[in-house]
Every structure is written in structure tokens, then in C-alpha cells.
Amino acid sequence: MHTIQKTSRRAALWAMAGVFAAAAGACAPAVAAQEVLKIGAAVSLTGPFSREGQLLRDGYDLWKDKVNEAGGLKVGGKTYRVEVVYYDDESKAQTSARLTERLITEDKVSFLFGPYSSGIATATASISERYRILTLAPMATANSLYARGYRYIFTPSPLADTGLNPLLALAAGFDPMPKKVAIVGPDDLFPNVTSDGGRKFAESHGFTVVYQGKYPKAASDLSAVATQIRAAGPDVVLATGYAQDTLLLLKSMRELRVSPKMIGLAMSIGVEDFVKALGQGAEGMMGVDYWVPTLKYPDPLFGNSAGFAKAFEAKYKKPPTYHAASGAAAGVVLQLAIEKAGSLDSTAVRDALTSMQGETFYGPVKFDQNGVNALASASASQLLDGSPKVVYPEAVREAQPVFPLPGAR
Amino acid sequence: MILQTIINGLLIGGIYGLATIGFSMVWGVMGIINLAHGAYIMLGAYIAYVVSARLGIEPFLVVPLAMALLFVLGYLIQAWMLNRVLKTSLLLSLALTFGINLILVDLMVIGFTSDFQAVTTRYAAAALEWGDAFVPAARLGACLFALVLAWIFHEYLARTRSGQAILAAALDREVSRLMGINPSRVYALTAGAGAALAGAAGVLSSMIFPVSPHMGNSFLGAVFVITVLGGIGSLGGAILAGFVYGLIQSFASAWLGVNYQEVVAFTVFLLILIFRPQGLLGKKYFGEGQ
Q1: Of A301, B16, B279, B281, which has the fewest CB atoms closer than 10 Å, so is most exposed?
Q2: How far lies A35's CA from each of A31, A74, A75, A79, A180, in Å?
Q3: Interchain proximity A276–B117, CB inside 8 Å
């Protein structure tokens, strides 16, 4: 009795499986008509860069959805459905390099989307270069990465050494002009390049750099840095760090009453954490954005920046930051190049990239042989009444900048 | 500038000390290096975040709640898992606590995402002025509170029966058993108390540092050094070493640059291991033979 029951149950399961298989089979021809284009991305979903890594993935994902919604990617008469294979690199360069190799050799992806941060991309770029797989790395902008003669890594974003330029250019226009500048950030590839680039720009524009400091990336306490900044007495404090350490720095500065006339970050002030975590204390702080929603460039997929922002909000229920925008723009750039090349071969698409000039909602693109976008530029935003408003360049300005900060001494 | 450097070091040192006591006691009594200790601190910070930032309750008032919850967690983990492993090999306890740490951190990532949260108090920007130096109110309050908790725990060890049992087990596990002390219970009690103190340190640090699931890991390095510096299993040593560590970091940052604060701290750690392996206040019998 017992066995019979068991057998019949198993038979029922098999029957059900059969039904599903048949149903799947019925759908199969429709799916099979479209081939799949696989793109690999090892991004930081946990660890110190998880915040930025997730935003970047959101951008990649939105582009993928949008392309598939529009019927897929057309390559020389064939249409491909886009699929992105993600791995979590745990914010570690070694892990990211290992996962990149796995994406290329085991998952057989045709192209790569880059990781978050230049330090990690430096490790993955040597892998993708070896296998000659084209990488679009919108959030890896350290100059050194594009000065090694690598042929398969491209970034649509402005390079790191220009990261503080919008803030300094804005400050140079204030009356009276703030003279003394402090630049501070964690000891890491991107922050260091940004810091040194900022120093050069500042000195050539009539500022005096009274303090330039580094702290360990994983520092648990930054009150010493805040103390040193206070002793230097700057008018402008520019921070080149990432979300976590910058938050800690700003809290420490507030506790020790470091109140300069202007506080600017080399990253977006639109990252929710800042407003949430600092509350009223974040008011008036400035940040640099590689992209702002007020940009007016036309885009073949999203229409323009407003179209991108709308699509992003519909999918993620929050306004986009430049991290996500850069991710989606990287997708659009790759798409333009693939369509131009009419091929999925990395070398052919690479050649298409270096010979094309186009526009996405993110801005104009024209790549040199090193993978640098010669037409990229950034803008500056300020937190006013709790929300970021574009204040520089003036052509896309949403609000008059507030300067000096209230309570500055 | 020097005065401010001393103030910075002392204020952070008090919290480091409190964060270390539990880790040091557990190590001294059972010989377990509890790698989940940082996660306990992180859980305390999240309890403060949930109760304080979302419900608007004063963070200092959350300390008893966090301590109670963490006590239960620490007690149960010890009673159900670590006590079993202790009978086999001490190395296994490293693997087990490492795993517990991963699970706790990832559970918080799932529950709260890896976003950085903050507990912002009314007095977040308040500070006492002392010449040209500032004493931030939140840090001062947290440091004093930490010292009071350390003193209460000291009194508990010195004056209660169960406290004496913990000290006895730390002195000699075998003999304490002959005296009628149930080691499993004492171990669970020690682990619970250690977790409770870690939870309190978490609540206090939530007012100063950004709260994230990974915050415990940066504490663990400091806690480890302070434990060895103060002497394994020594409560007074942990507090004293907490201040010393805070000052070392603070002065290293001021004189050599912030980049060197950890280099200097770990150099001191190595020197201690070479010249005074029992630590500042460590007694030889704490943790002996384990």
C-alpha cells in the first residue's frame, strides 16, 4: 500500500513535470529566435563600496531592461537579447580580478562592464586586457589606468584629476574669493589622483593649499584629521573620499566645530546617505556630479536626461545619482559602438569606439586611443533645503549657490 | 593643538576600552578569541539606530535594552554552540566565531542593506570650549558612560557570587570545577556579559561613527590590540589600554600623519608582545595553559 502511494505520487510529479516541459517547449521557439548577448560585471555589492557598487549595477540593469524592451540589440541583421551576469567582488581587487577571469572563461561573456573604483579596475583591467575583452568602466577614472597603453578599457566619465575642478572653478568666481583651500581624502588611488589634480588646479587659479592630507581607507576615527584641518584654518574644505569615510570626516568636523566657508566633496552630494545621516548638518555642502538631471544632451535610447531619470525612478522608486547614470550611459555607448561595428568582436567594437563621435544623455563622447573621453566634463551641486541643486556650470544651473556657509568662522 | 590631540585620544579611548572588556574576559576565561565580537558591537549600534533614530528615544537610554538583548544572544551562542566546540579544539572556536560573525553581518545587510546610517542627537554639534580646544558633547558623554559601565561590571565581578565564579574559572578551570562551579554555566554567563558590554559600546559608538553592517570589523583590530596591550582577561587593563591606544593613535596622527596611526599602534602591539607579553596589567595566571 505504502509503496503504491509513493509510486503514484512520483508518477503525478513526473506528469506535472511533463506538462511544464511541454508548456516551456511551446514557448521555446519564440525565445530561441533571439540570441543572447552576455555582458559580465563584477561590482561591489558588499563591503566598503557596496553603496556605490549597487548604484552602478542599477544603471547597468536599467540600460539592459530598456534595450530588451525596445526589442534587443541589433548586430548585423541579428537581434540579441542582452543579459548581464553579475558577481559581487566584495569591494576587493583580488576578488574582482578572479571574478573577471571567471566571467571571461566560464561564463563566456562578450563584453565587460567595469567595477566600482579605480583601484579595483586596475586589477581587473590587466585580466580583460589579456583576454582582449572590451570593458566599459564608467566609474574607474584614475588617470594611471588610461596611461598604461591598455587598448580594451574605456570610460565615458571625466578623469579623476579633474574631479575637483568644478568646485574650484565655482569658488574662484565668488566675491570675495576664498583663498585658503584644504584637500583631504583616504589614501587610495582615485582620491590621491583627485587630490593632486585639485592641488594643481587650485594653485594655478590663485588659491593657496594650506592643508593636503591623507588618512587610511579603513580609519575608524578621523577626529585627528578634523583637528589638523581646524589648525590650518582653510576657507574651503574639499574631501576626495568615498561615502563611508567622508561621512565620518564630516561628523568629526562638525563635532570639532570646523566651519569653513565652503565644503565640497569630489563625489555626489545627492547620495541619500549624506542627507539622511547628517540631517540639517549637510545643508549647503557641495558635491561633484559626472551627471545631473538638468543636462540637455539627446540620447538614442532614453531620449535625454529627463527620460533617463524618469525610467530610473519608475524602476527603483528613487531619483538617480551619477553612478547609475554613468552605468546606463556606458551601456548606451557600448550599444552605439556595437551597432556601428556590426559585430560582437571586441577588437572591431573597440575600433568603432575610437572612431566614433556621439552623444548620450550623459554627455558627448569622443574617445582617444587610450580609452579616455575627450569631451567629458563634470558639474557641481549644492544641498539647498535638503535637496541637491546644480550650481555649476552656469549653463545648467538650477539655483544660486549659497556662499559663505551660514555659521562659517 | 596638543591639548586637542589629548582630548581626541582620551575620548575615543574610553569607548575602545569598553568595547574591549567583553572580548578580553571571554579570552581570559575560556581561551576563546571571539571573532564575532565586532558583530556584537555592530548589533548594539543597530539597536540604537532602530530605537533611537526611528523612534526618537535618547540613545543613552537604549543602552540597557541593547545590553539585555546582546546578553541573551551571547549567552545562547555560548551555551548552544561554543561550549560544545570548547570540548574538542580551541582552533574550532576560531572558525565557528568567524562564521557567526559572517552570518550576523550578512543578516544585517539583508535586513538594513549596507547603507550607512547615523544616529544624530540633539547635541551632535554641541561641544565644550576649553581654550582653543573643543570637547564634543556626544563623545564626552559616551566616554563617561563607558567608564561608568566598566565600573559597574567591575563591582559585579568583585561582589557577586556569579562574578566571583567567573573570576575563579579564569584563575583555574579545573580547580573551579572541584569547588562546585559549573563551567558551562559560567562560560555562558561570561559570554553573555561580554556581548552585553559590546552591545553597550555599540550604542555609544553609534552616536559618533556611521552605522553599517561592516563597522564591527574596524573595531575588532583595535579591540585585539587593546586586549593584548592591557593584559588578557584584565578589566582594568582593558580600560587603561583603551586610553593608551586612543592616545597613541591620536598622537601618531598628529605628528606623523593620520596614515601612520595604525602602523604605530601595531608597532606598539609588537613591542608589547616582545617586552611585556602579559600586557600592562595582565597577571600571568589569566589565560594560563589555554
Answers
A1: B281
A2: 8, 10, 11, 7, 58
A3: yes
Give the SS3 label for residue A222: coil
SS3 content of chain B, % helix, strand, coil (to 5): 75, 5, 20
Task: For residues A405 and B18, give the distance between their C-alpha atoms in angstroms, rounded to a whole number.
Answer: 38
- Provide the H-helix boundaries in A175-239: 189-204, 223-232
Cβ partners under 8 Å of residue B148, min gap 6: none
Q: Look up the pTM and report it.
A: 0.73
Strands A262-265 and A208-215 come out as: unpaired
C-beta separation of A388 from A395 below 8 A: no
Q: CB A272 to CB B115 under 8 A?
A: yes
Nearest Cα residue to B262 out of A186, A25, A6? A186
Q: Where are the domains of chain B?
A: 2-111+145-275
Tell me, yes or no, if B262 comes closer than 8 A to chain A by beta carbon: yes
Sequence letter at residue A121: A
What's the CA gap between B212 and B208, in Å, rounded? 13
Residues 6 or more apart whose Cβ sits within 8 Å of residue B261: A216, A219, A224, B248, B249, B250, B252, B253
pLDDT tens column, A305-339: 999 999 999 999 988 988 999 999 999 999 999 99
Q: Which of B11, B219, B258 sits opposite A215 (nearest CB)?
A: B258
Q: How far is CA A53 from CA A113, A137, A237, B221, in A?
A: 12, 12, 26, 25
Q: Does the distance separating the beta carbons of B115 and A251 come in below 8 Å?
A: no
User: What residue spans of B78-136 are helical by DSSP H?
Assistant: 83-86, 90-112
Residue A255 with chain B: CB contacts under 8 Å: 124-125, 127, 134, 136, 138-139, 208
DSSP A86: E
C-alpha torsion sign, points A268, A269, A274, A278: positive
Asked if A318 is an interface residue toward chain B (Cβ–Cβ < 8 A), one would say no
Domains, chain A, with CATH or none: 35-159+295-366 (3.40.50.2300), 162-293+379-396 (3.40.50.2300)
A55: its cell numbers: 548604484
Grid cell listed for A94: 583580488
Question: Is A257:A233 a contact under the CB 8 Å cutoff?
Answer: no
Check CB contact under 8 Å for B262 and A50.
no
CB-nearest to B219 from A220, A222, A247 is A220
> Within an 8 Å CB–CB cutoff, is residue B249 touching chain A?
yes
Q: Cβ of A273 under 8 Å from any chain B Cβ? A: yes
Residues in A closer than 8 angstroms to B1, CB to CB, are 227, 231
CB atoms within 10 A of CB B54: 10
First to last CA, chain B: 45
User: What is chain B's pLDDT, residue by residue, as a tens digit (290 residues)?
Assistant: 788 999 999 999 999 999 999 999 999 888 899 999 999 999 999 999 999 887 888 899 999 999 999 999 999 999 999 988 887 877 899 999 999 999 999 899 888 877 778 888 878 778 888 778 889 888 999 999 999 999 999 999 999 999 999 888 887 778 888 888 888 899 999 999 999 999 999 999 998 888 888 889 888 989 999 999 998 888 999 999 999 999 998 998 888 887 787 788 888 888 888 888 888 877 655 444 33
Q: What's the CA gap between B28 and B31, in Å, rounded? A: 6
Per CB-CB distance under 8 Å, the chain A contacts of B8 are 221, 223-224, 227
Rounded to a whole number of angstroms, the distance from the CA of B109 to the nearest CA of chain A is: 8
C-alpha–C-alpha distance, residues B248 and B229, integer Å: 12
Residue A79 burial (CB count, 10 A): 13
ipTM: 0.72
Contact map slice: A 28-67 vs B, CB within 8 A = 46-48, 50-51, 54
